[in-house]
Each structure stands twice: as structure tokens, then as C-alpha cells.
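User:
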Amino acid sequence: MAEPVRVRRLSDQEGQKLQQIVRRGSTSSVRYRRAMMLLASTGGNRVPVIAKLVQANEDTVRDVIHRFNEIGLDCLGPRWAGGRPRLLSPDDEDFVVQTATTRLTKLGQPFTRWSIRKLAAYLRKVHGRVTRIGREALRCLLARRGITFQRTKTWKESPDPERDAKLDRIEQVLEQFPDRVFAFDEFGPLGIRPAAGSCWAEQGHPERHPATYHRTHGVRYFHGCYSVGDDKLWGVNRRKNGAANTLAALRSIRAARPDGAPLYVILDNLAAHKGETIPRWAKKNRVELCFTPTYASWANPIEAHFGPLRQFTVANSNPCNHTAQTQALHAYLRWPNANARHPEVLAAQRRERARIRSEKGIRWGGRPLATAA
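Assistant: Predicted structure:
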């Protein structure tokens, strides 16, 4: 008759380790059950009794005891099976990712984007390289490689032949003459209608504005002027853009520095900023107009200040007429001008500059576009 299966004599270290695992129970369930099997066998229990104790098959108990007698406590760890052989090699996975991220017109497909079903079907029919993969496995593979379904974005490059020269000049005056640099731009159109926004409210009960169906008030444009050195923003609402309104804004800038010394005004490269009288007036009053390149209005320092202006005065508003809207704009302008270094103002300006850079894909010398922040 064969001798009953039981563990060999434990060493002090092995006994303490098994007791620690069973008492704490903080390890994996596999290690915990196997430790119980070994301790129970050490106490003289037979295999059938141990199997009932841990709710396991008797053959499993015998295998654990035999492996402990051979290799010691290493038997506590599970021996995970390798599963079926991999169907896709690393090269095949790279090919799948490359196919998924390639423009479909280059592959001769009549689509603008892949679906999981279409991509899996295409991979099975690629000439010279058949890749068989299921839809779920394909989805998991793309997710594991960091390929996700994203919205397409557009971007522009400035076609201005003097782009670098204009940017260099703007950067130069910002660095060398910050107290003599101003910026000008229009903000709008501003209509009389409820504007979407956000505010603090009880959860599930947001603030609501009435809808409007008729636009009987027309629109206005905020013509803003910004002093880089003083970090001051001012402006006025106009019915339309035009050279006359631009000239009026430039005169207000000149009035801010009545000493007659040269001034530098950064403004967009628009026709309304280049009327016949504007260059003559600028030359006569010692004002240099530093135009931003085409499609590069992000280089204007005032752009970072229009973001907070829109966020705190236009968003979540419902003005009754343009007079009330203008009063709200001017009331807001008085606050940041009086609190130019307020942390909230600086944070809003940093967020707006980051948004402009991310949308335009811009890195301009690693320096902020304005010295105010």
C-alpha cells in the first residue's frame, strides 16, 4: 500500500512564512489556498480532508504538496498557461497601426475615415499581406497603441512673404520699448441675444435665459486699445469697422503718451487698418504701425485680453440693448485696470495665451506675447 501524500518537514522560515500568509490573508487567493493546503498537511491531515477544507480537487492538493517537496515555497505562485500562440507578430501590429493612421485616399479606399469593421475587412484583403484579426481584438490593439477616435482639426500657415520680418519687428519693440508699445484690434460682432456661458448654481438647476427669435438691434464691434507697459485696456463700441474708427483709436493711443516721443502700435493686417489717411497721420505723429503677418493675429498682445473680456462680460449674459452691453464692458474694463496684477487676471490671461497657442500650433521664441503677464 502506498504511503499517504504529505509535505516534508518544514524549516522555521517556511513555517513562519506559511503562517503569515494564512493569518493575514492579504495575498492573492491562489497563494492563500495553497498555503492552507501545506499547513493542513503539516498538521497530519490527509488529502481528502484538505480538499474539503479548501474546496479543491484532491489531485490539485497532491500536485501542490509534490511541488512543495520539490521546489519549496516557489510552489505558491501560480503557473499561468501561455494560452494559444499569438496570431499577430509585432511587425503585424505595426502594420495595423500604420494602416489605421494612413489617409484612406493613399490606400485607394473610397472613405474619409475607417470604421472598425471596414478596417478589419481591409486588413484581410491587403495584397501581399493578409492580416486576420477580429473587430474586438482590433479595437483593443488600437487602444493599447494609443490610437483613439478623434475629431479632425484645421490649421493655417501664413502666406505672408514678410512673415519673419514682421514677427521679428514685433518681438524687438516688445523687448526694447515695452513702455512705448500699444496694441489695437476689434472684438465682435456683439449682438443683443442671450449668450451661452457657465456660472455657479445648484446641481441640476442651471441658470436659464429666455430664447430670442428676432435680431432687431443690429451688431456692434468693440474697438480695443491696450498699453503693454501699463497693462491697461480701454475701448469703445462702434457700429462697424472702418478706417475712420481705426484712426480714432490711434488718436486715443497717441493721447495716452502726449510727450511726442515715438510710439509703436501692433495691429492686424486688415484693410480697415490701412486707410489713405492712416499712414500719413502715423508718420506725422511719430507712430510706427507694426502689422502682424497674414493669418497670424495671435502675435497681437491684445488677443490674450479679449479672452477674459468674452468670458466675464459676454458669456452668460442677456443684455437688453447695446447701451447696457457697452456699460457692462466698460464696468469690466475698470476692474482689471484697477487690479492689473490680480491673480485671477493673470491666470485668465495665461489660459487665453495657452488656448491661442494650442489652436494655432504656435511656439514663438518660448516667450509670452505680452509683458503684462
